[in-house]
Amino acid sequence: MSEADVISLDGKSKSKIALPDIFNAEVRADLIQRAVLAENSMKLQPQGHFLLAGMQTTARYYGRMHSYRSGRHMGIAIRPRQKLGGGSQGKVRIIPSSVKGKRAHPHLVEKILAEGINKKEYQKALASAVAATARSSSPMIISNEIESVSKTKDMLKIFSILKLSNDIKDSKDKVRIRKGLRRSSRIKHYKRTILLIVSKNDKAIKAARNMAGVDACTVSQITANLLAPGGVPGRTTVWSEHAVKEIEESIKRQSLK
Asked: Which pLDDT score is estimated for 86?
């Protein structure tokens, strides 16, 4: 069992901690990608259509053999047309190729959108993503004091001491602005850089999530998308001591529902 340094809030090595075997797991990029796709598919919402869409019209199809309102010998295509006054015909309706007609291939509410993944396969993908956070170097583990930090400015100082301020700056520089639903609204999407994992949902999560590109979660809330955004393993991750000790037991309880 390998060991890693535990860093104090002032950036100095405080002690040593035995790393769980999960940090030495094989990194399977294909499994991580599959787990991320499965997680994203769970967010999809089934879509349906209005059963009477395109049918609320006076239009009717009469066929070729009917002489009245059939369009026969009139030089026009025989299609379901609106019934106007005086026996005349209006515009084509109902059929998908017409204006305000039915949709050709409407969504089905019964369609299964979620992509399933086996429980053991998902757990192995999470273990692989955890191991990838320590592939370039040993995992960045900080003392449990970080879980008591309640202010964003204090958390920013800690990340600066850990030499992670460039990651936050990189996230701000690569911001993507998307137009919102309202005319003047703009939605900012920052590049996801740092992940903070603690043992309990407390002040540290609120302090960290206010920074651009930074995600924070408890050890029981980790997902493949948090550990490897977009299926790309090796995200910069900061662990608390308690989180490292609880990670193996937490993953054994994980399943994608």
From this structure: 80
